Amino acid sequence: MTKESAAKRAFSTVLLVLALAAAAMLPASCGKGTGEDGSAGGERSSVKVEIEDTSDIDALIKDLDSSIGSLSDEDFAPDQLNDNQLGW
Amino acid sequence: MKGTQIKSILVVALAAALMIASLAPAALAQQEGENPRERVSERLQERWEKVQQRLELIITRFENNKERHIKVYNEMKAKVQQLLEQMQEKGLDVSKLSQDLAAWDEMIRRFASDYAALMETLKKLCSLEAGEAEQEFRPLIQEAREQLRKVHQDVMEIRLFYQKTIRSDIQDLRSQLEGSGQGT
């Protein structure tokens, strides 16, 4: 084997390894960062809760009531897929 | 040339112009849609494109709503979890809240999973070609409606579970804290 052909073979091996590495990374990058896996997640909130006494619990209940109150069941109202909404 | 001759020429010219004008739209229509079947197909295509646009809007709206719901639920869960840990450190009985928090988490996961199934169906619907839509729209939209009903039910259950159970557990801990003498 000449020096030239050995160099060509080494170069094509490197290219093949790079291509395989890129192919292996592709599915991971497509699935990453979308956050659409449907998991509800269990990550901790950045909001810190400090409970010293009952007034802190009262404040927490008020805060939680307000959070749940900010969401509407109608965001997923079944009539949004009616024929007249879709025009079919 | 006599006046009557000029008048006759003008009348003939006017009649010819009117005839040409009345024939033009028909000729144009014949050029555009060569036959009735093609015209029906064009109309179906246009109609389906409008339905697709509406579906895309609905999908975007649902995605935004889902993100908002999940974010709020996760923040609420994290706050309740912190409360639970701190009350446990104070020696209070947090077993009921711990059990109910796990059940609530399960409900939120079910919502996310039912939502993902709905999205899959809606995206499948949206990717249909006009010709396929004629056959496949009805069964797929029925499936999506059923899935949306489930998602709606999940959201109501999550809210009700907080209002009837989690909130009551927290109030119970408040009473425990007060009774333990650590409440003030």
Lay out the secondary structure.
The complex is a heterodimer of chains A (88) and B (184).
Chain A: H1 3-31, H2 54-69, H3 83-86
Chain B: H1 3-32, H2 36-89, H3 95-126, H4 130-179
Helix pairs in contact in B: 2-3, 2-4, 3-4
Report what the structure shows.
The complex is a heterodimer of chains A (88) and B (184). Chain A has 3 helices and no strands. Chain A is an all-alpha fold and 88 residues long. Chain B has 184 residues and is mostly helical. Chain B is built from 4 helices and no strands. Chain B has helices spanning 3-32, 36-89, 95-126, 130-179. In chain B, helix 2 packs parallel to helix 4 (130-179) and helix 3 packs antiparallel against helix 4. Chain B is rod-shaped. Chains A and B meet through helix 2 of A and helix 2, helix 3 and helix 4 of B.
Brief write-up:
The complex is a heterodimer of chains A (88) and B (184). Chain A has helices spanning 3-31, 54-69, 83-86.
Keywords, please?
heterodimer, A: 88 residues, mainly alpha, 3 helices, B: 184 residues, 4 helices
Number of helices of chain B: 4
CA gyration radius of chain A, whole angstroms: 28 Å
- Beta-strand content bin of chain B: under 5%
Low-confidence stretches of chain B: none
Category by helix and strand content of chain A: mainly alpha
Overall pLDDT confidence of chain B: 89
Tally of structural domains of chain B: 2
Relative helix content of chain B: over 70%
Write the H/E string of chain B, N to C: HHHH
**Main beta sheet of chain B:** none
Query: How many runs of DSSP E, i.e. beta strands of chain A?
Result: 0
What would the average pLDDT of chain A be, to the nearest integer? 71
Write down the overall geometry of chain A: flat
**CA(first)-CA(last) distance of chain B:** 118 Å
Distance, first to last CA of chain A: 70 Å
Helix and strand content put the structural class of chain B at mainly alpha
Percentage of residues in DSSP E strands of chain A: under 5%
Instruction: Give the SSE order of chain A as H and E letters.
Output: HHH
Number of strands of chain B: 0
Q: Biggest β-sheet of chain A: count, sense, barrel?
A: none
Number of helices of chain A: 3
